[in-house]
TrEMBL record:
Part of the tripartite ATP-independent periplasmic (TRAP) transport system. The keyword Cytoplasm does not apply. Belongs to the TRAP transporter small permease family. It is a multi-pass membrane protein. It comes from Vogesella indigofera. InterPro entries: DctQ, TRAP_DctQ. This is TRAP transporter small permease protein. Residues 23-152 form the Tripartite ATP-independent periplasmic transporters DctQ component domain. Its main location: membrane. The chain crosses the membrane at residues 12-35, 47-64, 85-103, 123-148.
Length: 172
């Protein structure tokens, strides 16, 4: 399972790199075309915006996987291990609730986007909302898996404020 998740993580990193390359090429090419040839690529803005949305949401998934999201662990680090674990369970439950709301909203927007099309290229706007949908599902699974490890007292559980917590993401 670990090998499969590592390969999936590498794939996401490559997709993010590809999205960034496409964004840079389109925006730079459009700037050059406007200043040098007084023309431009009409679709460059739409595709760049789509790539940016996917880049952000894929990055958010990787940040959860690698335990890299910003957090203030000063309070948790001062708690006893039992209170730290309880705080982690509560925070994970709140994150799961927020992600459930995000999933519902992304699903609604995806359905709406299936009937709405972009101005220049005419692709379904569901491609934008689909990034949020994928992000919500992936983050729900990752956080639920860590919550399960916390409750089961698994040694690889990521508990904020624990001295043994390190952000390698290898065990998520």
């Amino acid at each position: 399972m670990h090998n499969y998740l590592s390969r999936l993580e590498r794939l996401v990193e490559w997709l993010m790199a590809l999205a960034l390359v496409v964004m840079v090429a389109l925006v730079f090419g459009n700037v050059v075309l406007r200043y040098v040839f007084d023309s431009g690529i009409a679709a460059a803005e739409e595709v760049s915006r789509l790539m940016f949305v996917w880049l952000v949401f894929l990055g958010a998934i990787l940040a959860v996987r690698q335990n890299s999201h910003l957090g203030v662990e000063m309070v948790q680090a001062r708690l006893s291990p039992a209170w730290r674990r309880g705080c982690a369970v509560l925070s994970h439950l709140l994150m799961l609730y927020a992600l459930w709301l995000f999933l519902q909203g992304s699903w609604s927007q995806t359905l709406i986007g299936l009937e709405t099309y972009s101005t220049v290229l005419g692709f379904p706007m569901a491609l934008f909302a689909g990034a949020g949908l994928l992000c919500a599902v992936a983050m729900l699974l990752l956080i639920a898996a860590n919550l399960y490890r916390i409750v089961r007292r698994h040694p690889h559980a990521q508990i904020p404020g624990s001295p043994d917590t390190h952000s390698t993401g290898q065990d998520l």
